[in-house]
Amino acid sequence: MSIMEPDLHKLKINDPFLGQYQQLVRNVVIPYQWDALNDRIAEAEPSHAITNFRIAAGLEHGEFYGMVFQDSDVAKWLEAVAWSLCQKPDPELEKTADDVIDLVAAAQCDDGYLNTYFTVKAPGERWTNLAECHELYCAGHMIEAGVAYFQGTGKRALLDVVCKLADHIDSVFGAGENQLHGYPGHPEIELALMRLYDVTQESRYLTLVKYFVEERGAQPHFYDIEYEKRGKTSHWHNYGPAWMVKDKAYSQAHQPLTEQQTAIGHAVRFVYLMTGVAHLARLSNDESKRQDCLRLWNNMVQRQLYITGGIGSQSSGEAFSSDYDLPNDTVYAESCASIGLMMFARRMLEMEADSQYADVMERALYNTVLGGMALDGKHFFYVNPLEVHPKTLAFNHIYDHVKPVRQRWFGCACCPPNIARVLTSLGHYIYTARTDALFINLYVGNSAAVPVGDNELQLRISGNYPWQEQVKIDITSPVKVEHTLALRLPDWCADPQVVLNGEAVTGDVRQGYCYLTRCWQEGDSITLTLPMPVRRLYGNPQVRQQAGKVALQRGPLVYCLEEADNGAALHNLSLPADSAFRVFEGKGLFSHKILIQAEGFVQRVLKVESQPLWQYDRAPTTREAQTLTFIPWFSWANRGEGEMRIWVDEV
Amino acid sequence: MSIMEPDLHKLKINDPFLGQYQQLVRNVVIPYQWDALNDRIAEAEPSHAITNFRIAAGLEHGEFYGMVFQDSDVAKWLEAVAWSLCQKPDPELEKTADDVIDLVAAAQCDDGYLNTYFTVKAPGERWTNLAECHELYCAGHMIEAGVAYFQGTGKRALLDVVCKLADHIDSVFGAGENQLHGYPGHPEIELALMRLYDVTQESRYLTLVKYFVEERGAQPHFYDIEYEKRGKTSHWHNYGPAWMVKDKAYSQAHQPLTEQQTAIGHAVRFVYLMTGVAHLARLSNDESKRQDCLRLWNNMVQRQLYITGGIGSQSSGEAFSSDYDLPNDTVYAESCASIGLMMFARRMLEMEADSQYADVMERALYNTVLGGMALDGKHFFYVNPLEVHPKTLAFNHIYDHVKPVRQRWFGCACCPPNIARVLTSLGHYIYTARTDALFINLYVGNSAAVPVGDNELQLRISGNYPWQEQVKIDITSPVKVEHTLALRLPDWCADPQVVLNGEAVTGDVRQGYCYLTRCWQEGDSITLTLPMPVRRLYGNPQVRQQAGKVALQRGPLVYCLEEADNGAALHNLSLPADSAFRVFEGKGLFSHKILIQAEGFVQRVLKVESQPLWQYDRAPTTREAQTLTFIPWFSWANRGEGEMRIWVDEV
Fold first, then answer.
1. Least CB-CB distance to A544: which of B321, B359, B571?
2. Subunit contact B548:A651, Cβ cutoff 8 A
3. Which of residues 607-626 of A touch B (CB under 8 A)?
4. What is the CA angle A237-A240-A245, rounded to 5?
5. I need a surface site. Which of A638, B250, B466, B625 has the fewest CB within 10 A?
6. What is the ipTM of this complex?
7. Which domains are delineated in chain B?
């Protein structure tokens, strides 16, 4: 059994909802980010990323500017462009990207090394600070871009660059006497080399991933060795000197992966690492690594995942904290971490065919990932809280990382281009195309053609997900194809119904997928009905931040209260356990979106003018009826600054 | 109308409850802290404070060690000893203290300067870094000790030292051309000089306080001027270079006091400053400064005070945050801040004769201040949270400052000796002895003699406060004395009853005091009955961290749930709005203490073994009856590590 990555040329998204997001990425986000990379956006923090490449290529004189990982923003933009070109050819954009690729190639050193920070700023310090300096991380992103651009355009220029880069890295790292026994401080190259292996079938790349993964956390510790060797210099100081070297759990390098029991450290690093490990485990049939994936996935999802698909409960280290510690207001939940979670889930799905991975992937996509970008495509969240009280943010340091509205760009700009590349490559997440079955993970409207043996199964998914309950799957293959379709039955749906050519079928349901095997032909049609009553969700009783509270979900969407609809002091609102819900389509910003209303209560202050001096008097409030309006959480903060909260007191 | 500070020799505490605390301070805390100051406690962080004085005095060679304000620990210990000697003579202890005073005198420079850090470590840098280096703060504490030791023992040695020190400071600071136009980064000397003025009637000291207060926040800013002058060196780096210079609100120096609208910055600094300002405002009849005190007191108490009498909502800067932002678990609420709050309240009482100040003073004393020390007198809290979940603390940086159990000593050891000196000088808080009336603020058992004109009013307060409702006040003067007694009617008491010689009286009640004027004589007896039903307290509706929750208070004591009585996961407990309370005396650690029980609920997990993978399932719990046991919050964490919470969901 093997997996065939869907060819995104043959997978056209026409979803009324996410299709618009893709359009937004094409029309707004990609041009906007191109401007940002070239420092043409007045109100945004400077990027300098393209200029760095020009300086490294010798085309311009100047100083490197930006983060040590500034190159990766260019790589992610190129990847977004690559996937976007699959959806819609755009010669002008392709020309721009080709020029960037020429520039990247020109910035590559003769030996294959490619990194503008070190080339321009510290040429003598190559590979001396793996723990802190993101060289392999940047390489990983460029490799991903090279693979994507090859897949998206058929052009090999960047693929050749990154193969040369990967070959160089392969020569530098390994068990050999003259090689570095190191591995990245920020994992990323593992998942990238696996993609490069997929495309090139060059076994050295897979072997190198295995080396990086298995060397990780070995003693004596590589981070300490290189730290001593370079004279104890340190690149990052925000938590004290060399903290990134010392706090090895931050990089998931405190112990070998086989010994790790919990999702720990920097959340993005964790899911990036595990994405590569899961890919490697499947392709190398490595049961031990598969167990590592299952164990760490379970810890993360069962004990450290937010209802929004967010991970990373704390700002310090942008990291996981501990089991069942899920603060709503001080949470980090970086947009990139939820993107990485989707990537990890995708690789788990390819290994396991268990819908729980798709459930989490969908939750991350429709909530935190979409929420990371404003509806205008020009403003972004890095941090995605579940509760915000804007008036307080500036005055209490526990909220230093929280912004009440999306920002135009960031000094550390990892998230915006990451959102762009994941939204343009949705096709990779919709299906898992295995030789034995085509798994449909997400009900995003699209038409696709997937190879089945020597044939091709063509199909079309349509509907108005996630707003409406019916999804239609039409087979459009001109010739008959014998194959199995595996339809995901979402965890949020209590009573899914499958109708095939007008007849209800139960199918063969295993691990959350309904398997339908048949000789498919044009005209075959499946109607999947996924009833979407408003669900009341309750926290795991171990999670103290959710005790006594309820959250609403409809379909895959988590809902929230916003000040714009419900007034300030949202904490004084409560929802009776027996309130009925009204769902209706919103207006303006919320047109084509479903909102929810319910009758609730508000605690009102009695006689404000005579409010007692001492603030803790006997019940200075009275409970009055108030209609509560809930909006899809991903769309919050599109109407200016205001309070927001997901978890509401249930009374 | 003037105030006479009670002579603590004539004020003997014999309270069954706080008397034991005083005994603990005498028998355990003072000797223990003496050992600590001399580095004889193995498990505690080193102090080196006495050695610093020996080195400064030239009696020993060595290096200064410790905080720049290490001297103040010795001063606070001396002050605690002084007050303790009033209560119970102890020749051996007095000899030890006299030796310390000789040592302090020997460490004083010829010109009056006294500070071991600068004398030993940086003699050329005297008065070059007021913003950061605590010279005036240390001077203030030593002045307080000098005043106290004089009042407590009649000995002038330390008083002479500190007068010489104050005179030196008076020569260095002021409006003169060759004087420094500066003021302390950490206020303290203001309140100390006011006490020195009380004792010496030297008007220069009062004038100097006025200078320090009025110069504060003036432009161009003194902190900037001295920063430039010393070549931009900085002593503290924890929040970035020279942050203490830059963040002037931290020291309440961002603007003149008259312009400040909110309690802001480092909480201890704020209340220390305001203690001095209130004292100055009264003695100089300065209506503008009185208004400053009223305005800032009101902001603090109405919008930034915890139910426990704690202040300082955040660990960053040990500081206030903003109006109505009162997190229970990430709060700082330093023990010293509540001691400073008592001091500020005392000075407000002397100015205003309004019981609201005594209400806050009592709340701080019986909750946070007592809670700052373990029942064994050997362990201390620096930070006093209202909710603790120990398992989480080590893994989420928002809890970095929180300890689940009291510690033996601290590298920054301001709190333990501060608790000792306030508990030994309780007499200063019990009464406000004005010429027109004797105000009884606290119902601590004691016998006292207070001058009234040429006579003396002798009285005895007895009872078993705060556990029992009846307080008896017996007049014991052998001769008749015409005077007014003003009995505080606590804010927590809905229905206080006053019986004078067997007859109910209503008295003349103004601003929370019941005034009784009479020619008092031996045998006169007042019985004050303060009914102590368990009260349910509710947060101000602006405070989101208390929404939907209730806290219990009986008398002045705030209660809490602890894991030891109620099991783990306290967040799953709730208290019905109509539950009845049982009060009863506890056992063991809680003997002589009143505990509270009520029938409540616990959310129990249904079928733990089959708990769903996905943590947010539909109501995975059931609500079962459970008896809730509440203990006085000040006595929490005396049974090892466990969860604690004050605010409980009300259902």
1. B571
2. yes
3. 611, 613-621
4. 80
5. B625
6. 0.91
7. 8-431 (1.50.10.20), 435-529 (2.60.40.1180), 535-650 (no CATH)
